[in-house]
Specification:
- The structure is a single chain.
- With 417 residues, the protein is α+β, with helices and mostly antiparallel strands.
- The strands form four sheets. Strands 6-11-7-8-9-10 form a six-stranded antiparallel β-sheet. It has a five-stranded antiparallel β-sheet with strand order 4-3-2-1-5. Strands 12, 13, 14, 15 and 17 form a five-stranded antiparallel β-sheet that branches.
- A hairpin with an 8-residue loop joins strand 9 and strand 10.
- It is flat, with a radius of gyration of 24 Å.
- 31% of the residues are buried.
Amino acid sequence: MADALMENAPKSEELWSLYDLEYRAGEDDAWYNVYAVLDADAHTLTVKYMCSPKRYKIVLSAAGFETEAQVEELVARFRPVSQQVQDHQCGTLSVGTTVCASHGIGDYDLRFFDAVIEAVSRQAHSYSDGEEECLCTFLLFWKHGRGHGTITSAKIASICIIKPAIGIDYRISAFAKMAKEKIKSSKCISASVSLDSTSNDNCHVFVEKKSGSCRNKPQEIKSQMRRSEDSENNNYNQWTSQDEDMGPKHCTTDGLATYDDHYSILLSNLEKDITPSAIKNFIYKQTAILPEAYVFPRLLSDPFARGAIVVDCQKKVQIIYEFLGSPNHLVVSSRGRPWVVTEKAGTFGSNILNLIPIASGQITRKITCEELKVVRTGTESYKRAKQLRDLFVEYMNHESKLCKNLAFEEKRILQSC
């Protein structure tokens, strides 16, 4: 009987092939290999982790979301499995490349986060025993997680290449559709639905213990995690709660526009044909935060567009603001136009949430997030972008003086009447 059970048991290779997605967990903000199971009848999505010596799973209910933005944020937490870089592929790891790498505290607590390669120390490879071994050292700037904002060194064995996503996985897409339909139907019944009141009945965390082991490679070590076995929470808090230890850097939000418990960053000097989705996807790609984005209406004669990035908590706006305000790089379009953060001291009314993208009749071509890039100090692209940014800032200062002069003259004329 035991032999028969062993014959029917899935082989290790077959078992690992099921874990075909990466999921950024809310508990520690790390990426893990997971297996997603969609139950169309129960309207649930089960996310199974595989780790040593246990396997865990969480069950998300389509009824446990309050807004479509929450659904979209969940969707953004899934992506194809990153591939471990082989020694002979080290030449593909250039400065500015975003990778998924292990960040450990001790030998038994390795977790994977996204990082940007800041510098590379190239060394001649070793070919002992006929096998190539990369001896290069990579300096990584951590974009999120417990190392956020810091720079550490790593070897190639700790680095994985992020695979580009070609569309959304069919299971995640189907679950998102069900969740959005639930939201729409709930709005028809009630003007407001409390996520907390529905989550207790509809969503629980299930922890499943089984025997198993992870192979000792970085891609598979990603599944080593620590999870509380008695935790229960609603969908949104379940996968958005993060550790308070986000790194030593601190960015004050003094002067940032806030409204209705939201934080906004105003952008100017954008390309005229940029779309909110391009801004939104680019910021997520660079910071692992999915914001709301807006492009303001403009005159046809305006040479540039203005917009805003909006998030719902101070921690998120700190991370995005640190990225946009970094002295080490600038964000530019493929045509070379640099973004400029403006009016940080401005305030908004709640009507910002009702703004719509510029009318399609005003543009002939839409910019995608792939046409936005980061240029770094020391490059010709950065030098040119900085000149253009300084020119735009000079223009804004001149415009501000003209506005003040206009207000003064208007007041003088009105008072003389």
